[in-house]
Each structure stands twice: as C-alpha cells, then as structure tokens.
Amino acid sequence: MRIEETTIPGAFLIEPDHISDDRGVFYESMRSDELERAGGITFQPLQINYSVSRRHTLRGIHSVSSPPGQAKYVTCVRGVLRDILVDLRVGSPTFGRHQVNELDAASGRSVYVPEGVGHGFLALTDDSCICYVVSSTYVPGTQIDINPLDPDLDLPWDCAGTPLISDKDAKAPTLAEALAAGTLSDFDAA
C-alpha cells in the first residue's frame, strides 16, 4: 500500500497493492495502522455510506462543520469517478485550492479526506458507486455545502454536456458566501 499526501495538507491518496492470480485480485483497501504511520492520522470509522450515480451526475462539494467534524475515506467500488477535494479550512495555506483524483473500481485507489476539506465527484460511467467510510455519524444541520459550479473555484469537472445536479447543490452558496457567513471550520496546523 502506498500512501501519499496530496497538495492539500492532511489529505492522502492511497494506492493498494494488488495480489493477482487465476481467481482474480485481492487487496487491502484501508488499514488504519498504515494511515497513522504515513500521516499521523487516527481514523476510527463510525458510519459507512454508499452513493450510486448515473453518468454525468455531479455531487458535492460537501463537508461537515466542526463540531462534530467528519473525516472520510472515499473509494469507488463500481465504475469511474472524477473526485475533487477543496480545502475549506479557514487559515489553511491551501484554502480554496483543489485536488483532482480519478477513482475507479479496478485500481481500488482511495482518498482520505480530513475534517474541514470539502469533497465532490462527477460520475464518469453509469451505475458508478462510491463508498464513504466516515469518522462521525450523520448529525442534521451540520452539513456544509458549497456550489460545485462556483465560478471562483473553477473546478475542472470536464463534463461533456450539462451535469445532473441536485437542487440543494445547485443552490448551495459559493465559497465566498460560506466564508462571509462564518460557516467554515478553522485550519488546525497541529
């Protein structure tokens, strides 16, 4: 397993080692001990979510306010996704910047998203399924949504045609609006 920090502090891309034979493939998708060794991350899953999407579905940018905060370990278990992280942590050296990763079921590649970093994806295939292993359970009223088409973020979705997007995401505030409203978490450099 290779664990590499992305351009966003505290966010990691995880590449599993595959063991192949005539029967197929085996790999370890997540190991909390390896996350702790590579990045000092203590990650305790408390909830697992799945989302299934049609091609050109755009979901995000989503985060959770702190408290309770929520870290995510994100894996595409079917299909292919363009996965984008946006640093929403006020005071972070990469505030407002993004990281793009392609996640697909064949590679088993995953992304660790720390608390305060927003996450979204575009389904590149029909019936794409993403798995979120998260560090806190759902708490109504703590969601932070940023419009994924915020022109100031200018995220490289590269969608052929108009993406399928929920009303909630389409009407979500821009990053500047969320910052002005004081809904974003502070960066903890520790």
Automatic annotation (TrEMBL):
Q: Which residues form the active site?
A: 62, 132
Cell membrane as a keyword of this entry, yes or no, is no
List the molecular function annotations (GO) for this entry. Answer: dTDP-4-dehydrorhamnose 3,5-epimerase activity
Checking Gene3D superfamilies in the record gives: Jelly Rolls
Q: Where is this site: Participates in a stacking interaction with the thymidine ring of dTDP-4-oxo-6-deoxyglucose?
A: 138
Query: Would you say which domain of life the source belongs to?
Result: Bacteria
Query: Could you tell me which PANTHER family the record lists for this protein?
Result: DTDP-6-DEOXY-D-GLUCOSE-3,5 EPIMERASE (PTHR21047), THYMIDINE DIPHOSPHO-4-KETO-RHAMNOSE 3,5-EPIMERASE (PTHR21047:SF2)
Q: Which GO terms describe its biological process?
A: dTDP-rhamnose biosynthetic process; polysaccharide biosynthetic process
Recorded protein name is: dTDP-4-dehydrorhamnose 3,5-epimerase
Family annotation (InterPro entries): RmlC-like, RmlC-like_jellyroll, RmlC_Cupin_sf
Keywords for the protein's UniProt record, in alphabetical order? Isomerase
| Pfam families, per database record | dTDP_sugar_isom (PF00908)
* Family statement drawn from the similarity comment of this UniProt entry: Belongs to the dTDP-4-dehydrorhamnose 3,5-epimerase family.
> What does UniProt give as the signal peptide span?
none
Q: Name one GO cellular component term.
A: cytosol
